[in-house]
Amino acid sequence: MALKKKITASSIKGLSIDDQRINDTEVSGFHARISPKGVIKYYFFYRFNGKQRNYLLGAASSMTPAQARDLAKEKAGLVAKGIDVHFDRKEVQKAEIANNLKLGTYLEQTYLPYLISQNPKTAHKAYRNIRSSFHHLLDRNVTEITSWDIQQWIVERRKLGRSPATLTYSINRLKAALTRAVEWEIIESHQLHNIKLIREDNTRIRYLSIDEENALLGAVKQRDVLVRNKRISANLHRLERNMPLFETFENVRFVDYLEPLVITAMNTGLRRGELLGLTWKDVVLERGYLTVKAENAKSKKTRTVPLNNTVIDVLSDWKEQNPLSEYVFVSSEGKPLTDVKKPWMKLLSDAAIEDFRFHDLRHHFASKLVMAGVDLNTVRELLGHSDLKMTLRYAHLAPEHKAAAVNLIG
């Protein structure tokens, strides 16, 4: 049965389990409760927008009746001003959670499951990119990550030669993760909107000279010979020890995906993502063309790219080697490729070619077309440029056409 009296140290001491509670006579709504186990806590009861609320002030073991009464008065004053103190308490708890939430924990326990639910194919790639790029921030509280942290990171990465596009990709991945945290009300805001990104120099045109092209193709062939010799050596070693032999390369043209990939890139101008996203359903060798699907294209538009005899020959043999694979370019285990940076860099080193990205094979393709007299609009269509301005970067490679145009009025 509830008692009604002033809550004091003596009245609290005399409170029994049968009494259940004491309603204070001085402050309306202030009361003390005793649990079946004998634990006493102070509460403040109030109504807000027609709903009953019971706000926990604290335990009798950690505060005096006078302290609890003063806190009840404070909360009563807030309610009188139209503030729901129960909701305010939730906001405090939410802030406490946010202030103690590590980036690594948030990514693993909250953001990764969300990414998987949206797109299982790309989820882990985005997750790994954030973790590897910002590993120094994984133990930092999410609310403490500042734009200055990222700006410093940009400076250090640029010193290591990372391209603006690579840095922008990683920053956008982290920004997307934190923006979701705001949308889910895990944190109130983040500071990454203020980051100044470095613009890529889109005027840069790097293509291979005749000597460099020959060196690159020569390095591809030399790599083929080395891989085959290593396989022969490994099998001789295993044969001497009665171990199962590795599959030989005796009856196949290619030792792996790299040569078909490089040849196709040089002769189609496809972007890396477009190449790695190609499936055999997209390639019609009999009619000599392939289709870049909108989902893999930067412009988000489907386009058809004709294949020359070199590519048809290479892809025909490569398909014969991998009759069961869905994707065109797969690893030796038959899995779709996600990155080719390591073998590509080794290839450039072997060919003694400097300052040449895999993406520059696309520039090489376009440059050769323009220098062969192909008009810029056709080049634009083949590259999948949405705007002719992008293709005009190659115009200077056909100076004889400019001279011919001027001579028409001379």
UniProtKB/TrEMBL annotation:
Q: Please name the GO terms that the record assigns under molecular function.
A: DNA binding
Q: Which domain of life is it from?
A: Bacteria
The record's listing under PROSITE patterns reads:
TYR_RECOMBINASE
What does the entry give for GO biological process? DNA integration; DNA recombination
Boundaries of every Tyr recombinase domain copy = 238-407
Q: Which Pfam families match?
A: Arm-DNA-bind_3, Phage_integrase
Q: What keywords appear on the UniProt entry?
A: DNA integration, DNA recombination, DNA-binding
The portions of this protein that span the membrane are none
State the family it belongs to: Belongs to the 'phage' integrase family.
Tell me the protein's name: Site-specific recombinase XerD
Q: Give the source species.
A: Vibrio xiamenensis
Q: Organism classification, top ranks?
A: Bacteria, Pseudomonadati, Pseudomonadota, Gammaproteobacteria, Vibrionales
